[in-house]
Each structure stands twice: as structure tokens, then as C-alpha cells.
Amino acid sequence: METFETIKTQVQDWHNKREDVSIATADLEMSDQYQMCVQRKILPLSDHGVFQLCDKLRIPLGYYNRLPNDMAIQQVDYWKSREQFRDKQLRLKLHQDDGVIGIVTDKHVPVANTSLIEGIEAVATKSKVDAFILTNEKLYLRLVFPDITKTLKDYKNDVVKAGIQVINSEVGSSRLFISPVIWRQVCSNGLVIADTSNRLINRIHRNKKEGISIEEQLSQIFPLNGDLYNDLFSQFFKLDYKITKRPAKEIIAEINKQFNFTQKFGEDVLQSLDIEIQERNKKIEDTTMYDVVNAYTRSAQKLPNFDNRLNVESKIATLIK
Fold first, then answer.
1. Which of 47, 189, 217, 246 has the most CB atoms at less than 10 Å from its CB?
2. Which residues of the chain have pLDDT under 50?
């Protein structure tokens, strides 16, 4: 299990390998369809970098990827010299080991991961690390507060803990996002709460503004006295009083359609629901929305793509309202 100290070290090591290079769009130089020439060095261009290159030049990504190598380079050479693009300043996001990992405009002013980790350290000392992922595209951190818990009435083993999740990207993959999270201990399901009362940080990486620091924002947004989470716990547990009345298969099909989930994922949710019912020694006709929501988050744990997992958790959390 990661500790906050090991996370700080990893983030600092990643930061030490990073560099930004400013360049005019007209000066972009491709040595290959997926390579760029930067400061007389040929560097690989990441998938995210290719996506951003095409986005900046308005080249359809699928079209670019299907082109032969020489035609792809011709497309970049043609569009970079067009009047609407050639004078625009870009910043290439470089990584010592991985080449060009992002291409952003000069308006992009990200919160550095090192500054972010420093900013949440005071909160982190009162929590435990539940999950941490650091890639060239994104940082994800989930912290759990062991002392802020709630138990579902009549189910002593069904304990829910409180925490926060932190998402950030220095290369334009996402904005800085810090939100409350509740974490169901019995099956390690995470449930992202979409708080609507401005008690979260949701910052676009653009035109840096002086003012309140991340530390100050966190101290206001997430007071660690449990008050923030009591309301979230209450909303969550109220779902156990909402009997579905309709067949679970029908409800899950409706939710899948609402959130555009796949049929295959819906089938897995039905299996997860069976497990939820069995673990709570209930009858299928007594299924509640609490069971349905937790079936979705249980199935989300199996998704190989972490972003897809977060997407499911965030969407399903809206059913709590």
C-alpha cells in the first residue's frame, strides 16, 4: 500500500523528468507520423500528444491515424502553415523517458502535481491512501478518513467511510478536480459524490489567477469534522428505503440507457446485484436502490480502464439525489 511519503517521492521524480518547450505552430517539425523533431532531437509522440496535435490543427484523429506516414506528415506541414494556425504559440510537454507527452496552447497554465501534493499534505496527514495512479497524462489520488464512518442500520458490517479524490493533469488531459467520496468497506466499492453546493475544487488549467491557495480551499471545503459527510451518508443510506418495485433487469436496462452504458456491462451489473442480495440475506423482491447503486460500483471495480471506472462511479452517484 502506498503512503503519502512514497507518493510525494514519485511525483517529485516524475516532475524532475519534465520540461516545457515553447514553439510557434508554424515551427512544428515531424520526423515521422508519430515522432517530432524537438531541439534537434527526434522524440516519440504519445497517443495523447497525437490527439492534441490533431486537435490544434483541426485534423480528424481517425483520418490522421489511417494515413500513410508521408501523407500524415504532409497534412501537418500543410495545416501548420495556414494563417489561422501558424502564429499560435504552443507548449510541448516533454518527458525525459517518453518524449512528447502533450501539446497545449500558451493559455494552458496547469497546477503542477508537486504543488498539488504539497497543497493537500495537511489533509493527507489525517487520512490513509486508498488508491494512487500517476501516468504522464494524469494523477489520481483517493484518500480515506478512517475516523469518519457511518454504519447502515441493521447491517453492522456495512460500514461506509469518507474521503476525497483528487484528479489532475499537467498535459491537458483533465482539469484539476477535488471532490468528496464515500467508500463502502464491505466490498471496497467507491462512490463518487457529485456535490452541488460548491464544496469541491473544479479548476480549468487556464489563465492562472492569484488568490486563495489549494490549502485554503481545502480547509474551507473539506472540514474534517464529519459535517460535510453526514449529509452524504444520509442521502446514500436513504436509498435502502426505496424499494425498486419493478424487476431489477428493467431498472438496470433503464439506467444503462440513461448513462449510455454497454449491454455487456449491464449484464455484469445484474450478476453483481445477485451478489449484493445474497450478502445481505434479502429476497429479490426486497431489492432497493441501495442494492442497485452498489451493484454498479461493484461492477465498476472490474473495469480495466480506470477512467471508465471513475465515469461509472460519478454517473451512478447522481442517482442518490
1. 189
2. 194-199, 210
